[in-house]
Amino acid sequence: MSDRSSPFDGIEELLDKLNRQLETAARSWEQSVDGGGQGRDRRQFNFSMDVGSGSTSLDIADEDEEFIVTVDVPGYEADDLDIRLAGELLTIEGEREHAEGHDDEERGVYIRREREVQSFSRKVTLPAAVDSDGVDATINNGILTIRLPKREPDSESHRIDID
């Protein structure tokens, strides 16, 4: 037969990718339905705004004086991550380059290759305002920890005029 490529090349890879995305969507939906997991306060937050070729797991803890966001980012370095805070919306994005040494793939060493996730984006609406000047982020062993100190409520009274 000729060396022409088959129109079915890559369909298994495409189906695997679709299956992973559906599993991620189902997991996000389940979290939003059951309140996001176990905890002393089961208020519902908006966790399910995933974008990109992969998803990453995320936890938010309410520790009296601060919120602590923990994100699984295996294989990402600090330079690969971008964290932004706009009001009460926290955005965490990651993008990394393909790993070197793809020669093995061309030689047929891999039986299955799923580690093609190269980027992610998570947006989380925090339940209260935070002090953006006091935010601290660290990464250790593939776990990103973001500490967001709560902003003190404004105790001053403000007059509101009626038009």
From TrEMBL:
Region (Disordered): 26-47
Domain of life: Archaea
CDD domains xref list: ACD_sHsps-like
UniProt cross-references to Pfam families, sorted A to Z: HSP20 (PF00011)
Keywords: Stress response
Membrane spanning stretches: none
Keyword Transferase: no
Residue ranges annotated for the SHSP domain, each copy included: 49-163
Membrane among keywords: no
Similarity comment text for this entry: Belongs to the small heat shock protein (HSP20) family.
Protein name, as recorded: Heat shock protein Hsp20
Organism: Natrialba magadii (strain ATCC 43099 / DSM 3394 / CCM 3739 / CIP 104546 / IAM 13178 / JCM 8861 / NBRC 102185 / NCIMB 2190 / MS3)
